[in-house]
Amino acid sequence: MQEMQEGLTALTGQLRKTYATTLHDLATLMRRVHLVAYKIIKRGRGGAVRVRPAFAPALVDLQAMDVESMAETTVSEVAAGIGLWGDWQTLLPRMTARLTDLCERPTAADDLARLQAETRVLRAWLGDMTDSQQLTGICPVCHAPIYQPPAAHSVTCRCGWTSADQHPARLELQRQWSRLHITVTPAGLSDWIRDNLGVQVNRKTCMTWLLRGKLNAVQAGDGCWTIPLAAIARQVQRHASE
Ligand SMILES: [Zn+2]
User: Fold this and answer.
1) Could you tell me the distance, in angstroms and rounded to a whole number, from the CA of residue 138 to the centre of ligand 1?
2) Is residue 217 over pLDDT 70?
3) Of 65, 115, 117, 192, which sits with the fewest C-beta atoms within 10 Å of its C-beta?
């Protein structure tokens, strides 16, 4: 009896450990896909053959958004099992904090298998991005992504820019992130979608999307809304495939 108990404890410990590693890997991979989606970084060589979307957006990589969105669906379904809701950025750290609850679920092994399958999909899609290297930031001079081993202090970009610490490169990455929103009127949104995604969506439809909360937008006063580009691209893609 005691042996069986010990065996079970070891098994639970193993599940917990694997679950934690999987959540960590997923977070890293999804951050990368997100950066690819915004064309801040490129996919590695050896990734799956690129399928061209029906229309060619200038600012975002819709295929990356799709990959991100599918993985997010799996993450939110598993998270919903322990009563957590939100996007993957919110969910993954909160899931890590609630590992005990996740492991105690009767479906724990299946949930874990689904999450592991997502990490495999993301890894295959991203291709070889040399795992020993981490994205340190973006070069403030040439805007190229800079990858370095985690322990490195000084930063050197291929363009010749150097810095004694990682701060300026991280700051530039932050700056790039903050550019990922636009503040526009519904008419401005219609124009933006036409110019950047090559799709005609009239002002009235834009307004409906905004009012129905389809774009995660925040009112910014004077009839303007601040909208994440990701939400626009997703909604337009959904709209186009209807
Ligand atoms: Zn540079």
Assistant:
1) 8
2) yes
3) 117
CA 76 to ligand 1 center in whole angstroms: 37
Measure CA of the first residue to CA of the last residue in the chain; give whole Å.
58
Q: How far is the CA of 172 from the centre of ligand 1 (A)?
A: 11
C-alpha 164 – ligand 1 centre gap (Å): 14
Q: 38 CA distance to ligand 1 centroid (A)?
A: 19
The whole-number pLDDT of residue 109 equals: 94
Q: What is the pLDDT of residues 85-140, one digit of tens each?
A: 888 888 999 999 999 999 999 999 999 999 999 999 999 888 866 555 667 888 88
Q: Cα–Cα distance between 9 and 17 in angstroms, integer?
A: 12
Query: Distance, CA 233 to ligand 1 centroid (Å)?
Result: 29
Helices assigned H by DSSP within the chain: 2-37, 62-80, 88-97, 99-104, 108-126, 167-178, 186-197, 203-211, 229-240
Specify the pLDDT at position 235: 86
Ligand 1 centroid vs 47 CA: distance in angstroms?
25
Ligand 1 centroid to residue 145 C-alpha, Å: 8
Burial class (CB in 10 A: 0-12, 13-18, 19+), 99: middle
Distance 169 CA to ligand 1 centre (A): 10
pLDDT of residue 57: 44
